[in-house]
Design a protein that fits this description.
The structure is a homodimer of 443-residue chains.
Chain A (H helix, E strand, L loop, with lengths): L14 H20 L3 E2 L5 E3 H4 L10 E5 L12 E3 L4 H11 L7 E10 L11 E10 L7 H15 L6 E7 H11 L4 H8 L2 H4 L1 H11 L4 H11 L2 E2 L4 H6 L6 H20 L4 E4 L12 E7 L9 E12 L2 E11 H10 L3 E3 L7 E3 L7 H13 L4 E3 L6 H11 L3 E4 L8 E4 L5 E3 L9 H4 L3 E3 L1
Parallel strand pairs in A: 1-5, 7-9, 14-15, 14-16
Antiparallel strand pairs in A: 2-4, 3-4, 5-6, 6-12, 7-10, 8-9, 10-11, 11-12, 13-19, 16-17, 17-18
Helix pairs in contact in A: 1-4, 1-12, 4-11, 5-6, 5-9, 5-11, 6-8, 8-9
């Protein structure tokens, strides 16, 4: 066969990058567990009818068939790969509601797939890290304030630039549009959601054209979307637009709570950004997007919101709120800028040099002694000249080479960065803590 | 919509089981890294022509299409979900050979998919944990002896029954069949591979029928397959059958090395089992299967072998040896027997009780102080009666409830298992190490 080539939209990291990804996922997971979120994984596939409940995403779904399947036998039980982790989570909650304790807090770190045409920063397969809380019938609002704090802590644990979490509330938008006298607030929201891509003039024209707005109404919608503040002052700015509606009041009150909680927890983390709309249909209140500072033009790396009706079947209803870190998206951006590095490309800390092939069992015993004490160790692949064995370690960034002592002499270990070589005993030698495992840092 | 139901063949664990799985994967990963294997993940999809290179598995492949795709536009670039991690790894090595250091040791822990009809213990989606070593042109044999030792250590780190790794070598079988005068050793191997399911009589009949064996030859093949030993004594048993062939000699010598290394590393871990054949085409020498003691009738939970020609393109050739733990399969068996338990169903160690909703910010600060020191903490969902808040913790197995002191009194923390309640300071209190994170143990 010929040499294979990459598939567009399906990123694959080299081992050094995968070690960075693993380190990042580990830190995110530790933060999630610190807040009491329990881990969950759902299967990769969902019945198509589940995936298509919210029609907007239908074109992105990958559908499965068995290669040898009889086409005539394909029923309505067709399966597709999940395109996010919220829809499968809602399904899981409904399916297992009798076995779960509510409120149910879970995190979920898994690949998702979208069959869209690949473009810069858009993947067909990517890793997401989600947290959600759902409760039976009603979910207290304080969870909406907690979500961005957890995410803020997770990002703060990573060697990356600071983030800004931008928050809005659909009740603010919908109440405002209604108070303005607009009949189709959903359609207005969908148009305003395109503000970043289309710019204000085109959005104003579209609002008039497709959402039945007058020029003045369109202008007011754009004024609302331009409001942004790191504290509760956004309320005055909205009030100054002179629109009144009970839903608007409710939304403003909720949004103030999120912004205030953020200001107490981590000043500068959260901003009210009234242009944030989120394309997805299922959000009903708070919505979140997140910018990595210095990477604003690449869009959100972490988004989510409150959904009242996603997990609903018959008489059962589990409103929820959640937020999702786009791990692949974030790492793709940072790798692209060489903004993350790792101290070596393998987990190995020590290579045991091999004087002769006959001594392999003795070298294996040294390695095993080091491993027993948690020191990642390999034995050299072959009894080549020691210079070649040192280069084996060097090329991988492995810091230490261990030399078994000949004829009863003591073993020695060499730090191949400094050249320092000292006598050592495999039962007691310990590398400095910074050399024990590969270190991830800002590049 | 109506309440969703499970999909046959796509297992989903509840959070407590997922915590066990995560713990198990973490221990396996730690062992792999201890031996210097670097992590890798490949995309979930491969071009169909890659997946179908070894024709035997074609019926198991799930093929993908985009929901809105024009059927007329579907070219020969169709994609399928990978059914193991070895074929994608071989493809990755060929694609990235210029960027990798050889010998290349990697581990890979990912889901795989097989579109087969579900049956007991057979999943359509399951988690595998693989290690492989590949090198350019030739790969030293000592890696064949190392593989089962790594796997033995990985299993020994888990709270599960002991395992037996059963080893054979295709050169033994092929050389023996050739020495017997059989013309189609591959076909003989395929028939012998069905010994477990069909029994010796049917296999003997099939050997005569489809592999051109005489009754005596068939009998000799079955005698070879019946040989089993925990040490090198199997060599004498094979010699006693009176067949001579250079390939047989080579295979026996290799197999002795694997068994001897096992006996030194972990007595009782490895057995030569000459009936082990492995269905897959790509193995060329050593083959491994693994039984969990007490679960022998469920088949192998960890398999692999040496493959000389899987990663080959043009002039480049990367022979390898690898082994794969069937994580889902093993956990499915153990969960089915309630043989693994965890001390609680959430990561949370402490619930901070909420006297009134107004005190939530103060309770959040206590929680944050505990989290800062790595103690997983939740604040109670609502300011219910304390009895209800304690039951919230109890139902999840959370060991501690924290009571903020009223009116300047000290805080107290209650171990809700013993009822013991003591004064405590969030800046200094530490739970016993055994309570810090959920503990996994044999059930």
């Amino acid at each position: 066969m010929s040499k294979p080539t990459p598939l567009s939209g399906f990123p694959e990291w080299l081992p050094a990058q995968r070690m960075i990804e693993q380190n990042v996922v580990e830190r995110i997971r530790t933060t999630f567990e610190c807040y009491g979120f329990a881990p969950l994984e759902t299967r990769a596939v969902e019945p198509l009818d589940q995936l298509l409940r919210k029609g907007e995403t239908s074109k992105e779904v990958y559908v499965l068939r068995r290669l040898q399947e009889d086409p005539a036998n394909r029923g309505d039980d067709s399966l597709g790969l999940h395109f996010d982790l919220t829809v499968p989570f809602a399904r899981f909650v409904l399916e297992n509601s009798g076995k779960l304790q509510f409120p149910f807090r879970r995190y979920q770190i898994q690949k998702v797939w979208r069959g869209e045409r690949p473009q810069e920063g858009r993947y067909r397969e990517f890793l997401q890290a989600d947290i959600d809380v759902v409760d039976r019938d009603t979910l207290p609002f304080h969870y909406d304030t907690e979500m961005p704090l957890v995410i803020g802590d997770a990002f703060a644990s990573l060697p990356i630039p600071p983030v800004t979490i931008m928050v809005n509330n659909r009740k603010v938008c919908e109440g405002f549009y209604r108070g303005l006298g607009l009949a189709a607030p959903d359609e207005v929201l969908r148009v305003v959601d395109r503000l970043e891509r289309l710019g204000p003039e085109k959005v104003a024209a579209l609002l008039v054209e497709t959402a039945g707005a007058t020029d003045a109404q369109a202008k007011a919608c754009l004024e609302l979307a331009s409001i942004s503040a790191g504290d509760a002052s956004f309320v005055d700015a909205v009030r100054a637009l002179g629109v009144a509606d009970p839903l608007l009041d409710e939304g403003l009150e909720e949004l103030v709570r999120v912004v205030d909680a953020g200001a107490e927890h981590a000043p500068g983390l959260i901003r009210a950004e009234l242009k944030i709309a989120r394309g997805l249909d299922y959000y009903t209140g708070t919505v979140y997007e997140t910018q990595l500072r210095g990477y604003e033009r690449f869009g959100s790396i972490c988004s989510g919101g409150r959904y009242e009706n996603l997990a609903t079947a018959g008489n059962e209803r589990f409103p929820g709120v959640g937020i999702s870190i786009g791990v692949s998206r974030m790492l793709g951006l940072l790798f692209g800028q060489h903004a993350l590095t790792i101290s070596r490309s393998v987990p190995t800390c020590v290579v045991v040099a091999l004087p002769t092939e006959e001594l392999r069992p003795a070298c294996d015993r040294i390695a095993q002694e080091l491993r027993r004490r948690g020191i990642n160790t390999e034995v050299a692949p072959a009894a080549a000249k020691f210079g070649k064995q040192i280069r084996f370690a060097e090329r991988r960034g492995i810091p230490y080479v261990w030399f078994p002592g000949a004829d009863g002499a003591a073993d020695t270990v060499k730090d191949i960065r400094s050249g320092e070589q000292v006598e050592a005993d495999a039962a007691g030698w310990q590398p400095p803590a910074d050399d024990l495992v590969p270190l991830v840092s800002r590049g």
